[in-house]
Amino acid sequence: MRVSRTDGEVPDRIPPVAPPVITDSVVAARSVLSVAPELTEWLVPLVAERSRPRPVPFLAPHAVVSGWLGHDQQPKPYALAPPELDAHGVLLLVVRLLDPRLVDVLAHAAVPGGRVRLGAQTYRIAGDPVLRRADAIAELGGSKRQVFELRTQSPMTFRRRGRTSPLPAPDSIITSLRERWAALLSTDPPAQPRAGSGEAYVRDVEGRSDVIDLKGTVVSAFTGRVVLAAEEPSAAAGLDRLLGFASYAGVGSHTARGLGGVAVRALSR
């Protein structure tokens, strides 16, 4: 596993994405305040007040979003993924909400025309937050697969007893998701897989270890891909649901600060 150090900034070349398409299931925030499912992902469009956006410091989105959504609750009922650039050069803050009550809060805080500061750059909020995807807790999982790929969107780290580790061990992943599910959602987490049971295991791993400075807190974090599997059907179904939650909540520690964002994909084998 290669070790590197990051300076805490989003790279100068943020991968471009297609602009969000507003359809029946992707709508402006204020139109779904009364019907939002429990888990949602929002894009907040920002336009730089310079001709070209500067690199975004890693912790800058957290400073903005925590000001909108609050600092007090632990664990935080939201997570962040790295900012994206759309096809028109608009910077998109990616905010994942784990409590439907925060939809109203976000809609009233991220007001078009408002200004936010990300590091040395000032941005103007270019429009209402836009819903990119949403899931009800009861609808998580259902792929009927036993093998799942987690690909990091931002480095993930695991904290225990005051130490951080970049190792994406199944028990660390499962424990972090079960604890956050139990603390934030209204239903119990899946009974299986259980940490320490061996019901879930790593089939493949590829990546590196990064050392990240979170304003004085130095953490070791993993960047790459992990393939998890479970042979027993009920354990596989539970893993499917937990990883569906992970695609919103993130994995490991410091997810509200932008770490632990993952894209999850069910594999045939």
Describe this structure in words.
By secondary structure, the chain is an alpha+beta fold. It folds into two domains: 8-135, 2-Layer Sandwich (Alpha-Beta Plaits), CATH 3.30.70.1890; 139-267, Alpha-Beta Plaits. The chain has helices spanning 60-69, 101-109, 170-184, 233-249; strands spanning 2-6, 16-17, 39-48, 78-86, 91-97, 115-118, 121-125, 130-135, 147-152, 158-160, 163-165, 201-214, 217-229, 262-267. Strands 2, 3, 4, 5, 6, 7 and 8 form a seven-stranded mixed beta sheet that branches. Strands 1-12-13-9-14 form a five-stranded mixed beta sheet, with helices on one face. A hairpin with a 2-residue loop joins strand 6 (115-118) and strand 7 (121-125). The longest helix has 17 residues, at 233-249. It is globular, with a radius of gyration of 18 Å. Mean pLDDT is 86; it is low at 1-26.
Number of helices: 4
Strand content: 25-35%
Share in helix: 10-25%
Instruction: Please give the largest β-sheet.
Output: 7 strands, mixed
Structural class: alpha+beta
Looking at the overall shape, the CATH architecture of the largest domain is 2-Layer Sandwich
Q: In terms of quaternary structure, what is this?
A: single chain
Taken together, the total number of domains comes to 2
- By DSSP, the count of extended strands is 14
- According to CATH, the fold-level topology of the largest domain is Alpha-Beta Plaits
Distance N terminus to C terminus? 25 Å
CATH class of the largest domain, named Alpha Beta
Low-confidence stretches: 1-26
Mean pLDDT: 86
Shape: globular
